[in-house]
Amino acid sequence: MRYLPLTPGDREAMLARIGVPDIDALFDSVPAAVRLQGDLDLPGHKSELEVERELGALAAKNTSAGQVPFFVGAGAYKHHVPASVDHLIQRSEFLTSYTPYQPEIAQGTLQYLFEFQTQVALLTGMEVANASMYDGSTACAEAVLMAHRLTRRKRAVLSGSLHPHYRAVVETLSHYSDADVVAMPAGPEDADLAAAIDEETSCVVVQLPDVFGGVRDLSALAEAAHAKGALLIVAVTEIVSLGAIRPPGDMGADIVVAEGQSLGNGLNFGGPYVGLFATRQAFVRQMPGRICGETVDVEGRRGFVLTLSTREQHIRRERATSNICTNSGLCALAFTIHLSLLGEVGLRRLASLNHAAACALADDLTELDGVELVTPAFFNEFTIRVPGSGAEIIDQLAKKGVLGGVPMSRLMPDEGGAGDLIIVAATEVTSDTDRAAYRACLQEVLGA
Amino acid sequence: MSGEARDKRAPEPMARIERTFSGNAGLQIEEPLLFEVGRTEISGVDLPEPSNDKPRFGGLERQGEIGLPGLTEPEAMRHYVRLSQKNYAIDMGTYPLGSCTMKHNPRLNEKMARLPGFADIHPLQPQSSVQGALELMAMLADWLCEMTGMASVALSPKAGAHGELCGMTAIRAAHEAKGVKRSVVLVPESAHGTNPATAALLGYDVKAFPAREDGTVSVDAVREAMSDDVAGIMLTNPNTCGLFERDIVEIAEAVHEKGAYFYCDGANFNAIVGKVRPGDLGIDCMHINLHKTFSTPHGGGGPGSGPVVFSKALAPFAPVPFVERQGDACRLVETGEAAGDATPFGRLTAFHGQMGMFVRALAYMLSHGADGMRQASEDAVLNANYLRAGLSDLMSQPFGDQPCMHEVLFDDSFLKDTDITTHDLAKALIDEGYHPMTVYFPLVAHGAMLIEPTESESRAALDGFIAVMRDLAQSAQGGDVARFRDAPRYAPRRRLDETRAAREPVLRWRDGNVRQDDAAE
Description:
CATH topology of the domain at 109-364 in chain B: Aspartate Aminotransferase, domain 2
Largest interface: A-B, 211 and 223 residues
Number of helices of chain B: 15
Helix content of chain B: 25-40%
CATH superfamily of the domain at 109-364 in chain B: Type I PLP-dependent aspartate aminotransferase-like (Major domain)
Oligomer: heterodimer
Number of domains of chain A: 2
Shape of chain A: globular
């Protein structure tokens, strides 16, 4: 077995050194009645070549984004990641190290986390950020719990244009932790959120750009929330958007959570991704997750450590701010490397290219009879209303080799009004040929 | 897994080592922060000039400079390669962190996860276009169910603690379905901190109870703690002292008798794969750390993956999404309405879980097979006991010298009267070229040192580690305090001031922060 260094001779000599007759003697504490007799009912070991063939056959059954004109977004986005990013994150010292609990031999991890935290704070327009969360949706649920702690209230108001998966994660956690959720009816024309905020409200959660792709100013909502003593939580699922539009911190957000997948990380069928979490300096002791901070060593040299760990479960146990004990380290590294390659000018240009591609696509598609643009202001994705079932149209487009977006009915099966809506995304990888193919295929499908 | 107690006796600044002019030391090269080397007008990505005469941001254009520095590719390579060289890693040497399972991460797994058919597919593509991915998830679920003897699995939890949340939520949902509200969860004192934190998150009162003298939980203690108000018990098996809970079958019976459920923390499942199945022990749910038992890389602290297996009793409450086989095809069930007779408790995350980790874990499973996985567990246990045999005469064990599972626990009584702490010993190991073991966990052992070698270590590597540990123990007992108190001397940094970091938190770079050259003055 290529991964196991012990030889049969080693095992024999080691058992003798331990002073037991055989390996089963070391499993004596396992009740005999339940010990497995013989091997599990699974195949035996395989060579690299055999495993590659078996998994390669499964991979080949999938249509990958790079193979076809591709317009799927709604929380995860196809971007081009520079080759050096994947090379760097596969360095053994990054890939095969643990959480930096021994900071003297983990300065590499700690320093990039400090860089990551700074980048996230700058992007979101907030004062501080943590060292990352599992993903955007879990970060969003943790933000709601944090708002409950800060306000000593237990009711969150959720926008109707918050990604339905994010909404479901918040609702699930709230239900089982005895907190309330007031969820607005789902739809692109969000109800009057400000009117739903009262003295019991801990926070109001909105997405920017929202799940329909729409972009709007949240300043008035922030003021309305603050007037009632509630916090504004803004969720961003497309972090590249902050290279072009005003950051939530500028509009009065108290907590910004985001999905960072777009920078450095592939689509990966939904994970692993990287959650971003940023807030005000004053709230830092209620922030969940790992935090990296600057300090000095005994010789006065600058160094970094995990800090404020008195919030965390390994110290506080049942009084911890969260049960989280992991971040998304390697994905955060990919994010940080990609963003440092882009830099200010690169990010801004990337954001402009995304927006230009989406504008051109929106123009192309709305030229077709019966196709309407639902979101007048957007970043790199928008929602169209189609004459017919969005889900059926997406299936027919897929048969023609175009992955044309996400039918809103898949995310909002309960919403009657969602049946004819499709969320469409375009990024810097969308070519003129891709757009032409989409337009032509959609025309055929609608004409049929 | 590790916690660190504060050591107030700072190392001697007198022991300062001469520094070179640059602060570098051979291959150890100082590296400033990105914000000190990058420039906002530089980019390492060539992009075409955008052409868009009518932006549609609705007046929300971002104004002013963001302040993000850029690096060209050669600068980025140097910056991050230099940073990487300040980290210890499994690929460099023995990394015996107890409870963390720092086993070898096969590179085949990385290659498989990067196949475009897995890495470049979107979670919301039409299901017809991702049948291979759904089949992989179904296959992983089948393997996990067979290995654990459980009825179903939720793949979506993103890490071990997220898996705990999944399992405990299912328990709460199961009680709610019966119309009962129970308020207490039993957690032994030796548990991971995530256990009580998870139970508390779900509104439960945590009732801690001690282990008996041999380090395991007795069925009598559980019976005594049980009541009609207990929703469930959270027990790690093998436990955090590296011992198999020998009363576990009776404990499960005692829990079930009172209508409660048994949550097993599966952090240490790697000791028993192919030897005993949790389902045969009476467990109702258990999370599995794919990043421990099934070798997906720890990545400097994530991403992890924590699927949860369920007994028949809890299976109906498992969250969405999950994959169902329908003849030759696979269907992803994404909502409760589409779940048929099942009553999912809800959703834990956007999308479907850590697909990248599913591919890696399945590559590990296929590579090892049933025989290889049993052998891996046996070798992990053999290696831990070999370390125990090599060290037990010089070090002290809190529960006596008895066979352990995949990790061996020592306490600090062998350091009594030496003026050297567990913390000091850990730092001295760094100077010897090793990553320290887990220290000060579990809390039930004073000055705990939890050593987990894993099956990836050769006999020669174990002999080397034993020799170093013996030398350190003898040196400590011989009174060579400086060797410990001044350690580490040869790492990229010496001991860092954690009190200062927490008291005056500096959590991001700002122009004007202390720079390297200022700090050293």
